[in-house]
Design brief:
This protein is an alpha/beta fold. The protein has helices spanning 30-44, 47-73, 82-89, 129-140, 163-171, 199-212, 214-217, 230-248, 255-276, 288-306, 312-323, 327-342, 355-360, 381-397, 412-432, 445-453, 478-485, 512-527, 544-557, 571-582, 596-602, 605-612, and strands at residues 6-11, 14-20, 80-81, 94-103, 107-110, 148-153, 156-161, 176-184, 372-376, 400-407, 435-442, 458-462, 490-493, 503-507, 531-537, 562-567, 586-590, 617-620. The strands form 3 sheets. A 10-stranded mixed β-sheet has the order 11-10-9-12-13-18-17-14-15-16, sandwiched between helices. It has a 6-stranded mixed β-sheet with strand order 3-5-7-6-8-4. A two-stranded antiparallel ribbon has the order 1-2.
Length: 621
């Protein structure tokens, strides 16, 4: 055959370029040209060809190792077939976006060749070698290759033409590649972390949007759920929400109105709480909508148990404490369980000062500190007087009284007695002109009170003046266990006359818990117009400057008169004497200052005051 002149140029004894001149191309058949191309390719395999072959071999080894690792770890290693995406989502419209740089890490799928490459475009088939090596060699030689062709769906890209160019570019460490892009619009958001098994979830999401039209009504919505079946539960939530709206309004709302109202007034407030408190850190590999669904259903469970409606933040915090997956959270739960087994409840230390304010007091509602008031009920006459005293708090705070009776067992007689007590509670609340709810619990009294106290702002307990001898229970009564461990203020009512709460004495020693009591007194002086007396008993840990600082703090936040008293003597004796001299209605104190074991041996000013008090005592934490 007349191939013509062949000119070669050598560099370092290596073939660099080959020029083939065909003088009379009309005489050559297609077979001859194919032979000529093959000859050219074999001659051209110089330095860059050798490196390209080595690159392919390394890419195949890396692909095999990655396939083994993903099998061991259960990770997904497959490209997403574009055909499956299109069939699932039913793509709406398409737009030509021209040639533009595309992030290689967002190319996650293929049209027609999803079996030839893995998730990061490492070659998985031997037959890819020829073209892969050719593309790699061309890049080594500085050849500019044409752009690839891709479909864009959401934030993800799918290769139509150019699979080997993508594979080589990723292997050489490139971040972007030029691509001719056709964008396909989808009703649901598609992200670059999409996996084949996620398509069922996207199909369910799309069906949810078709039924609610939330993507049109609220374009910023992003209600992605991990489990496809959960969208049915969301639709049930909306239907129930519509039912309650219809019951309250004069006319039936439309479906779209109900969807909007649910999204704005139910869904988004929970999502904003999740974002504000960064709760998603506790639940990796899940979505905000997942957490919303869990919190709402947890709220239903807790509200049914407590007997009243709980705030979203309280429920979210409790859910995180119970089920959060951060290592620190897991360790904390393990620690609490171990201590619960090893340490008797009487020796458990109480909560640190300020927990109540952090958990319950809203910055936007400082006019009401005691919205939810838990009243413990035994059926004794002195307990009903405690209820009447609690009603004074409820009227001043626009609060709700939550009556709690704890039955010792599920015995029908015990339960029936509990129901009668709670019925009497509701009758008395109505007579006193305050709102009330009831809860009947079964178990240990102190444990149940502590459990329900988490959802309240104040715990009211009837406290008898005489406790009996210390020898009967040297580490404290049920009242003392609750007063030490509840992270809430405790109102101890002696069961005597109901007082009007107009004149308060604060026993102030500068401790963190006494400062919490000072905060409460500031609220009472500012919002109740209560007359305030700050009392400090001289000791090695107190001084007059401390008292003056407390007075200044109170004066800055209230227009009512604040007086101070700096006295010497035994603390509980001085407190009782000043209460009588000032004709005060109630006393505020910081909670127990000692650890339980030390308090058992040394005694406590709080205990000594409570034994003889004929007035309500508010113990603050």
């Amino acid at each position: 055959a007349r191939v013509g002149a062949v000119s070669t140029a050598y560099t370092d004894a290596m073939v660099s370029k080959v020029y083939i001149v065909l003088y009379d191309s009309s005489c050559y058949t297609e077979h001859t040209l194919s032979y000529t191309r093959a000859t050219y390719m074999s001659i051209h395999l110089g330095h860059s060809g050798s490196k390209a072959s080595e690159d392919f071999a390394r890419a195949r080894r890396a692909g095999n190792l990655r396939r083994l690792w993903t099998r061991l770890t259960g990770q997904n290693n497959n490209l997403v077939p574009f055909e499956d995406v299109k069939q699932t989502l039913g793509i709406l419209n398409q737009y030509y976006r021209g040639v533009q740089p595309v992030p290689l890490e967002k190319i996650i799928g293929s049209m027609g060749r999803s079996k030839d490459f893995d998730r990061v475009f490492l070659p998985t088939q031997k037959h890819s070698r020829g073209k892969w090596v050719s593309v790699d060699r061309a890049l080594y030689d500085g050849v500019t290759l044409p752009p690839i062709s891709v479909y864009q769906v959401g934030d993800a890209y799918f290769v139509v033409d150019g699979h080997h160019r993508v594979s080589v570019a990723r292997r050489q460490g490139s971040s972007f590649i030029d691509a001719e892009v056709i964008e396909l619009k989808s009703r649901v958001p598609v992200t670059a972390d999409l996996k084949l098994e996620d398509l069922d979830g996207l199909a369910a999401y799309q069906d949810f949007l078709e039924q609610t039209r939330l993507d049109v009504l609220r374009p910023d919505q992003d209600i992605r759920l991990t489990m496809p079946g959960d969208y049915t539960r969301l639709l049930d939530h909306i239907r129930v929400h519509k039912y309650f709206i219809d019951r309250q309004g004069p006319q039936e709302t439309t479906w779209e109105e109900a969807v909007n109202h649910w999204y704005d007034h139910v869904y988004m407030p929970v999502i904003e709480t999740i974002r504000r408190h960064k709760l998603m850190r506790e639940f990796p590999n899940h979505t905000e909508a997942d957490l919303y669904l869990w919190i709402i259903e947890h709220a239903y469970y807790l509200s049914e148990k407590a007997g009243w409606q709980l705030s979203g933040w309280e429920v979210a915090k409790d859910f995180v404490q119970r089920f959060g997956k951060r290592p620190g959270r897991l360790f904390q739960r393990l620690k609490e369980r171990v201590l619960g087994v090893l340490v008797p409840e009487e020796l458990e230390a109480g909560p640190p000062a300020g927990v109540w304010r952090e958990e319950r007091v809203e910055e936007t509602d400082r006019h009401h500190l005691f919205r939810d008031i838990l009243v413990t009920l035994t059926g004794a006459e002195t307990g009903w007087r405690a209820l009447a005293q609690a009603a004074e708090f409820a009227r001043l705070e626009d609060g709700v009284l939550h009556g709690l009776h704890v039955a010792p067992s599920n015995d029908p007689e015990h339960l029936e007695r509990g129901r009668r007590i709670l019925d009497e509670f509701m009758f008395r609340c109505e007579s006193l002109g305050v709102r009330g709810t009831t809860s009947l619990a079964v178990g240990k009294v102190d444990e149940q009170i502590l459990d329900y106290a988490r959802w309240s702002d104040l715990v009211v307990i009837n406290q008898r003046r005489e406790h009996g001898r210390w020898a009967e229970r040297p580490l404290g009564t049920i009242f003392q266990v609750v007063a030490e461990q509840a992270a809430r203020p405790i109102l101890a009512v002696p069961g005597t006359n109901v007082l009007p709460l107009r004149r308060a004495v604060l026993a102030y020693d500068g401790s963190p818990k006494a400062r919490e009591a000072l905060f409460v007194l500031r609220h009472m002086a500012a919002c109740w117009n209560a007359q305030s007396i700050i009392l400090t008993v001289a000791s090695s840990s107190t001084n007059r400057e401390m008292l003056d600082a407390a007075w200044k703090y109170l004066q800055q936040h209230t227009a009512s008169t604040v007086t101070t008293r700096y006295e010497h003597g035994v603390p509980h004796e001085v407190i009782l004497r000043v209460m009588e001299e000032e004709q005060a209605d109630f006393l505020l104190m910081g909670g127990y200052g000692y650890q339980p074991l030390i308090k058992a041996f040394l005694g406590s000013t709080v205990d000594r005051v409570l034994r003889e008090a004929v007035f309500p005592v508010l113990i603050c934490h």
